[in-house]
Design a protein that fits this description.
With 303 residues, this protein is α+β, with helices and mostly antiparallel strands. It has one domain. The protein is built from nine helices and eleven strands. The two termini are 16 Å apart. Pfam families: Transglut_core. It comes from Streptomyces aurantiacus JA 4570.
């Protein structure tokens, strides 16, 4: 299949650790089986109580700052030698955030021949928020096209009424859909938030997520707290021209999930040529535990 979303990026590349962790049996190719693999080796840093496990603070801090799938797999290798396909006890898991579940699933899907990508947006299925800032995986099927999957939901940790490997688009809004709903007056921007940090909400958050989702579609899978370009501007400083540009981004990214092929949309390429949207070689990372710092990023392949 001709799809850029089969190609690993510097962020999803599993590196040398995947072969070591897989063991003698190959990874399954079925997306649902791969989702179960991810759920079995990961623990969200806010899930400790569900598993009867107190997450060490250094793991909450250091694991969730891991930017690359290769780092995730290296840490898993350091915590145990069980095959990747065997579910682990909590202390042997990687302690991450939603983006880490999405990243590792995307990496494994690409490694086993399924086009996949990360999507940034808002989940409606968590109890503490109407529209909670969230990352999921989107993978390609020949009969369905692009399908949303949330490996974090697998295994009964959360009370949901749908298949975690087939998340309805009414339950997860990609950031472009959220932006358009707010711009059209169909939604209140202040209902879009980071539930763990309720003061992070509204137009600035949705604007940042629109840019982040575009970046992920273009081959740069950022951390949720990375900032650059139009993400960083104060709301009062955003011009009408920039709002129109963000409207174009939202239309493109919202439509991407309904595409009839698995190729990267040409409009994504064009938009990322705009310096206000392009991911620079350095971004401001407003890390949860480490404060604000400047981070150098690998330069993604274009094409």
């Amino acid at each position: 299949m001709d799809s850029e979303y089969l190609t690993q990026t510097p962020y999803t590349d599993p590196g040398p650790h995947l072969d070591t962790l897989v063991g003698p049996a190959p990874l399954p190719r079925d997306p649902a089986a791969l989702g179960a693999v991810v759920r079995g080796v990961m623990l969200h840093r806010e899930e400790g109580a569900h598993f009867g496990y107190t997450v060490p603070e250094e793991r909450m801090r250091e694991d969730a700052e891991s930017r690359y799938a290769e780092t995730v797999l290296r840490i898993l290798g350091e915590r145990g030698d069980t095959p990747l396909t065997e579910a682990r006890e909590p202390e042997a898991r990687f302690v991450g955030i939603c983006r880490d579940f999405a990243l590792l699933l995307c990496s494994l899907l690409r490694a086993t021949g399924t086009p996949a990508r990360l999507r940034c947006g808002y989940a409606t299925y968590f109890p503490d928020s109407l529209n909670d800032n969230h990352w999921v995986t989107e993978f390609w099927t020949a009969d369905r096209g692009w399908v949303l999957a949330d490996a974090q939901l697998i295994g009964g940790v959360y009370d949901i009424s749908f298949d975690p490997m087939d998340v309805p688009r009414t339950e997860f809004l990609v950031a472009g859909d959220a932006w358009r709903a707010c711009r059209d007056g169909r939604a209140d921007p202040d209902t879009f938030e980071v539930s763990s940090v309720p003061e992070i909400k509204g137009w600035q958050l949705v604007r940042a997520d629109v840019v982040a989702d575009l970046a992920a579609l273009g081959g740069v899978e950022p951390l949720p707290w990375d900032d650059w370009g139009l993400m960083e501007k104060d709301g009062a400083d955003v011009t009408e021209e920039e709002l129109a540009l963000l409207d174009a981004v939202a239309a493109t990214t919202a439509a991407a999930g309904h595409a009839t092929d698995a190729r990267r949309p040409e409009a994504v390429r064009r938009l990322l040529d705009d310096p206000r949207l392009a991911v620079p070689s350095e971004v401001v990372s407003r890390t949860t535990f480490g404060g604000v710092r400047v981070v150098s990023l690998p330069v993604p392949a274009r094409g």
